[in-house]
């Protein structure tokens, strides 16, 4: 397992950091890449200039924006929200990814309210940035703002592993919250990471959604890994291929193609 060392730049600091200082962070101190804070206020074109000059292994921007609600209820269609994130990535020339806040919000609501139908958009694709530009979507369920000691938007309690069963089997670049690595979830997270690596699931993998109903979401990724989250029932179709159970936990299960 490789852990990236990222240095975080806030918006105001980013304005005064020279290219040479970025190169020092990269080549002399040894940072792998950049985490860019509050990029809503920083045009993506400027980011591209810095990325081209410093060539980080990895970079990600935090484009944090409010999702769409009607009378206090989260709308099913969050295309406008993810479009704003995609527009920023595009302005940066695709040189940096972005945290997939759209997926975080939808997944959060789906698990909290047992509304797993939210996990498919109107075209039958994942409803977050990973459904439109998966290679630049950095998925997460918790970070230092939403969880930990701040807890501004904490993921539904005891449903964290359902969240990881989704992000760690799907395309995009999934991130694991530091607190969770050293919690009682450590073994389960490790097992899901092994399944992802063993089956070559990548940021560009393909997803075929098989169920997106009130109490269950199920999908097959790259035709090699099947998964389901939620209390509802799902078994991968066995007419053309055989499946074996790879891992399961509370309200989630993963299968691999049987060799």
TrEMBL record:
Swiss-Prot/TrEMBL GO biological process terms: carbohydrate metabolic process
InterPro entries recorded: A-amylase_bs_C (IPR012850), GH (IPR017853), Glyco_hydro_b (IPR013780)
Catalytic activity, as annotated: Endohydrolysis of (1->4)-alpha-D-glucosidic linkages in polysaccharides containing three or more (1->4)-alpha-linked D-glucose units
Alpha-amylase C-terminal beta-sheet domain boundaries: 197-257
Necessary cofactors: Ca(2+)
Domain of life: Eukaryota
EC nos: 3.2.1.1
Transmembrane regions listed in the UniProt entry: none
Keywords from the named record: Carbohydrate metabolism, Glycosidase, Hydrolase
Enzyme class: hydrolase
Pfam families named in the record: Alpha-amyl_C2
Gene Ontology MF terms: alpha-amylase activity; calcium ion binding
PANTHER family membership: ALPHA-AMYLASE
Family in the record: Belongs to the glycosyl hydrolase 13 family.
Official protein name in the record: alpha-amylase
Organism this protein belongs to: Pisum sativum
Source species taxonomy: Eukaryota, Viridiplantae, Streptophyta, Embryophyta, Tracheophyta
């Amino acid at each position: 397992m490789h852990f990236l060392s990222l240095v975080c730049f806030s918006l105001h600091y980013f304005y005064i950091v020279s290219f040479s200082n970025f190169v020092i962070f990269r080549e002399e101190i040894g940072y792998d890449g950049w985490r860019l804070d509050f990029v809503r206020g920083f045009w993506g074109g400027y980011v591209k200039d810095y990325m081209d000059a410093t060539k980080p292994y990895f970079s990600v921007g935090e484009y944090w924006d409010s999702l769409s609600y009607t009378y206090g209820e989260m709308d099913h269609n969050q295309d406008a929200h993810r479009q704003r994130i995609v527009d920023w990535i595009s302005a940066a020339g695709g040189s940096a990814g972005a945290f997939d806040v759209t997926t975080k919000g939808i997944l959060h609501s789906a698990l909290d309210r047992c509304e797993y139908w939210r996990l498919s958009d109107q075209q039958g694709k994942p409803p977050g940035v990973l459904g439109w530009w998966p290679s630049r979507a950095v998925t997460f369920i918790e970070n230092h703002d939403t969880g930990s000691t701040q807890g501004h938007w904490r993921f539904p309690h005891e449903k964290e592993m359902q969240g990881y069963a989704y992000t760690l089997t799907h395309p995009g670049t999934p991130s694991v919250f530091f607190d969770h690595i050293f919690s009682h979830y450590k073994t389960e997270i490790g097992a899901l990471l092994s399944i992802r690596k063993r089956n070559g699931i990548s940021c560009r993998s393909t997803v075929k959604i098989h169920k997106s109903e009130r109490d269950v979401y199920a999908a097959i990724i790259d035709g090699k890994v099947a998964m389901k989250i939620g209390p509802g029932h799902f078994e991968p179709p066995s007419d053309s291929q055989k499946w074996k159970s790879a891992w399961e936990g509370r309200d989630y299960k993963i299968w691999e193609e049987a060799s």
